[in-house]
Amino acid sequence: MASIASERPDKFRIGRVFNDSFAVISRNPVLCLGLAVLFSGLPTLLYQLWIWQSVSDIGIVAPEFSAQRATATVVAVLVSMVLAAILQAALVRAAIEDLNGKRPAIGDCIGTALSLLLPVIGIAVLVTLGAGLGFMLLIVPGIILWLRWSVAVPALVQERLGVFGSMKRSRDLTKGSRWALFGFWIILIIAAIAIQLVLSQLVAIFGMTVALILDALVTSVVSVVTSVAPAVSYVELREVKEGTSVNELAEIFS
């Protein structure tokens, strides 16, 4: 059954979004964590192992500031962007399917993500550039822009509005709820930072290799939460703004 109640909520509720986000993940742990490990955790681990090896044994891998290192870093960033886009779109699809009372299929989720790969990347680039410029100017404008566009990818996946249409849709949906969204994301960020601080202490206890593996697993979990949460936020915002049910959202794919 869908976790969203049938009655229309009067405002964006942080606790409700948290509960629904973790409920989606708990009902689909293999799909969510499997996709996250495949598209986030494993690539992160391989890249970090390569960096560690290059630092430990310069004779095997190029020196730290070589052209080869720079090229590998650029390639890694581009590949990471593509994989992150696939993961987010796939988990958005999975979250909506779950909230509609269905069991998400991994093939369907990846297929949806691949079909929308370029627009998702386009949104990611525009949001990063726009919010980044705002951060460099006065910080606050960057936060406002990032919150304004925080559900652009779910809007794209669910309503197929294109890059700019989805960003405009996100702006309209988040209007009036951005303080609540800000509080929601602050809690997630603080939790992620706390976990990373704990991991930094594990290096001395278990050694670098184990610490990197644990870091990759944590990266996978964080990726799941930060991908599912915008989808659940999108559903919550549509109910607050329009009273749109999850069933109506799912009809887009029928």
TrEMBL record:
Species classification: Bacteria, Pseudomonadati, Pseudomonadota, Alphaproteobacteria, Hyphomicrobiales
Keyword Membrane assigned: yes
Keyword Cytoplasm: no
Keywords: Membrane, Transmembrane, Transmembrane helix
Protein name (Swiss-Prot/TrEMBL): Glycerophosphoryl diester phosphodiesterase membrane domain-containing protein
Species, as recorded: Mesorhizobium helmanticense
Residue stretches spanning the membrane: 30-50, 70-93, 105-129, 135-157, 178-199, 205-232
